[in-house]
Amino acid sequence: MFIYRLLKLSAFVLSKLFFHLEIKGRKLIPRQGGFVLVSNHSSFLDPVILGAACPRVLNFAARDTLFRNRFFAALLRKVCAFPIKRWSADFSAVRESVRRLKAGAGLVVFPEGTRSLESEMQNITYGFVLLSCRAGVPIIPAWISGSKSAWGKGDKMIKLARIKVIFGQPVYLSSSRSYSEIAQYVHKQIQQLKLKYIFDNAMKL
Q1: Domains contained in the chain, CATH given
Q2: Mean pLDDT of 30-38
């Protein structure tokens, strides 16, 4: 955990220096207990930015191919990442996710499945709702703005940009709604956070 906290501090300082990182809603993150943090995804930087912005330790599922290098795999595990097979039903990764959530960890999920080329959040899957339900933990919506400008899909170099992270109100599951309905509700909450970002920027003009 020492390495995680050291890298988290380094990421926070560097994000402040180079991306003028602004964070809203940190107090909405539960102080204890597990939660699923659901965010838009448009940059390789997103996991790093969320880790720097969130006051809690975050766990990540990273594609299994990243664990082929022994040194890099060891580093990923030090920052609370675990492997997941993309584009297939990886039940071992689901079990590991639920285990960590039940143990009181925060888990990041990018429900778009991959980085988006668009500014709008794309169609999302409801797998994160299943994890939340099985573990009995809330869902925290989040919106990241600016990371695509810093290092978007297809970019070869990181550029200076302004990045902002907004955390939303926790969403607690209701037995009266289907997984799909809850996923769409969370999607709308994330879009509302985006509108809040646009409104806040307009007020500064």
Answers
A1: 2-204 (3.40.1130.10)
A2: 97
